[in-house]
Design brief:
It comes from Phyllostomus discolor (pale spear-nosed bat). It is a single chain. The chain has 240 residues and is α+β, with helices and mostly antiparallel strands. It folds into two domains: 102 residues, Serine Threonine Protein Phosphatase 5, Tetratricopeptide repeat (Alpha Horseshoe); 118 residues, Neuraminidase. The protein is 24% helix and 24% strand. It has seven helices and twelve strands. α6 packs antiparallel against α7. The longest helix is centred in the middle third of the chain and has 15 residues. The two termini are 29 Å apart.
């Protein structure tokens, strides 16, 4: 990402830029960043570089761009008269319009780069001491696990959901009793916020993030299978 901000990037020949755009290891926060970098490179010398645009655009993961950007590209002056560019844009738009067919549309352009796939977290669980309190995260790009934080206490059989890049830890057992407590962990600030407790103590629960809500279903409640679905409305909860 730092390379793209330098003057040297704008002076790269098309052959070298092609290698950069094709790499799974390029360090960018999202595909939009590398697309805008390509546009900057083309506009630096439009007269000579427009002829390379369709070749280079094929290495941008267009299906992973926001649909709003794709809609603007269709009639963009740089693309509207280039048949190959139009084909790539149409391919990306179909990927968004037909999500049920995405398994049939897989290609190198639908594969996220390593730095954009997010982070895998391992939260608590069982260890040799019958209850880990650590939070670890795995970075696909570096292929390393590191400790990201600590839980406030031991929990087993709890639920975890992610909303707005925050981890919600819900219910579970502390080794003695079933819990109804809910906490929110912010990985950026490494801070915990205690949220309002659930009306029922629950462990072994399933959870589904749904927009700004968390749906809990088919959980074990004091050894009884609870069939009710509880909707925890995080939009009414204020946390830092």
């Amino acid at each position: 990402m730092e390379v793209m901000r330098n003057q040297e990037f704008l002076l790269l020949p098309a052959e070298e830029l092609h290698k950069l755009l094709a790499s799974d290891d390029v360090n960018v926060p999202d595909e939009e960043t590398i697309f805008h970098a390509l546009m900057m490179w083309v506009k630096h010398d439009m007269q000579r570089r427009c002829s390379d645009l369709s070749m280079l655009l094929a290495f941008i993961r267009l299906p992973l761009l926001p649909p709003q950007i794709l809609a603007d590209l269709e009639n963009h002056a740089l693309f509207k008269n280039d048949l190959e560019c139009q084909k790539l844009i149409l391919e990306a738009m179909k990927y968004h319009l037909l999500p049920e067919r995405r398994t049939l549309m897989q290609s190198p352009r639908t594969k996220p780069r390593k730095s954009t796939v997010g982070t895998l977290y391992a939260v608590g669980g069982m260890d040799n001491n019958k209850g880990a309190t650590t939070i670890e995260k795995y970075n696909l790009r570096t292929n390393l696990w590191i400790q990201a934080g600590m839980m406030n206490g031991r929990r087993l059989q709890f639920g975890v959901a992610v909303i707005d890049d925050k981890l919600f830890v819900i219910g579970g057992r502390d080794g003695l009793k079933t819990l109804n407590t809910v906490e929110c962990y912010n990985p950026k600030t490494k801070t915990w916020t205690v949220l309002p407790p659930m009306s029922t103590h629950r462990h072994g629960l399933g959870k589904i993030p749904y927009y700004n809500n968390i749906i809990l279903e088919k959980n074990i409640d004091s050894e009884i299978i609870c069939k009710a679905i509880v909707l925890l409305r995080s939009i009414f909860i204020t946390f830092s």
